[in-house]
């Protein structure tokens, strides 16, 4: 039996899972680390923490599993995207990494658009300049910490720093590199035009591989620390969402997944490049060679339900603790007692502004249609339906680009709810299923590792063998037109209040 490792470098911690060659999880380990916020809106982490977490978790799964290290043939790394790691000539970290959720770079985004041109940037990198992406972070360091920038000789992404420490190789791959805003996404290579326009030295960038290509092998030093052998291969891996796509089998046309986590994501695979000229959704190279994925994001999906739970459901939380169950189980049962439309109550989930399709940081959430008859169950259902409508907005943009999935997979905490999955099926008017394995990005990274090691001939073939799907929930025919009526009203809420959101912020001291 051969084994592969999947490492998932998240924001709160790194999880490593050991899989056999058929995709069965054998053993896993997790190590957490801190997030630093030296100023409001800033977010940084220490790259060394990621590496130590990777070493500790690899060593842990090998020890606990009892698997012979010689049978671990390959590893793949997934992880948080967009983070900026800057190294000097000797490979030493120059400053803490500015990670994906940092918001300090609005001025640098304006600078990029001014120099490159917004439309031209989208045509090359498939996305407008965003504060979360790596390029604006790099320019921020150049503008504000010139002494650090002057010492920089290598720029890496979070997972690629861990790769460097494990192998000694400066390498990245197309899915993660797509989120740097330095990659020519249509041609899957660094953009000489963007680099020249912004005066960035191309030699600082790592070599770009496809996600399932071998980039190197474990070094002698890392082998001693982790318990692996120097023969263990390391493949390109993938950014977190691209790895999740592989881990759920979304690697062929017609397949997509919806994640209801803190934010909500609608992610679809496409073998034909498609870019939204308005920049409402992200187009990235995916982990399958010669293919891409398109992704829409709503900012406050599961966050909306958590906000409501924490502020208005103390009784349910207390009861759940006494019963030894998840509070969300009780909230789902309560919401199910309210009918479709929650007695003509709508919720707009704009607690954190919105990305797809509005790209509006100023819009805010609302309940619309409240009356004296409404109960907590109605508000709960309205929250779940409102998030579902926001995800439908994302799906509509994808459909307008010619990316129309035939089936949807549901992931994340919200995807565990049968009620929420049925809402998705009815609102999307397509079957919604879940995968048997819940390892997601770690499994995706491991599948890529298996392909790189020759255990499978392609990512698609590996997924057909290793990914198993539970029976889908079908749309209920009478529910589809009922939801459509309320969705039509929901779509008018943002348009009707767009200017009011901005007016309201004028009269608040903190724009909260």
Supply the key terms.
512 residues; alpha/beta; seven-stranded mixed beta sheet; six-stranded mixed beta sheet; 19 helices; globular
Please provide a written account of the structure.
With 512 residues, this protein is an alpha/beta fold. The strands form 7 sheets. Strands 1, 2, 3, 5, 13, 14 and 15 form a 7-stranded mixed β-sheet that branches. The protein has a 6-stranded mixed β-sheet with strand order 18-19-17-16-22-23. The longest helix has 28 residues, at 479-506. It is globular.
Question: Can you lay out the helices and strands and say which pair or pack?
Answer:
Elements: E1 3-9, E2 13-20, E3 25-32, E4 44-45, H1 47-65, E5 72-79, E6 85-87, E7 97-98, H2 106-116, H3 118-125, H4 134-144, H5 146-151, E8 154-156, H6 158-167, E9 171-173, H7 174-177, E10 183-184, E11 189-190, H8 192-197, E12 207-209, E13 214-217, H9 220-226, E14 233-235, E15 238-239, H10 240-247, E16 255-260, E17 264-270, E18 282-285, E19 292-298, H11 302-312, H12 314-323, H13 327-335, E20 346-348, E21 366-368, H14 376-400, E22 407-411, H15 412-415, H16 418-428, E23 432-433, H17 441-452, H18 459-466, H19 479-506
Parallel strand pairs: 1-5, 5-14, 5-15, 9-12, 16-22, 22-23
Antiparallel strand pairs: 1-2, 2-3, 4-7, 6-8, 10-11, 13-14, 16-17, 17-19, 18-19, 20-21
Helix pairs in contact: 1-6, 2-3, 2-4, 10-17, 11-12, 11-14, 12-13, 13-14, 14-16, 17-18
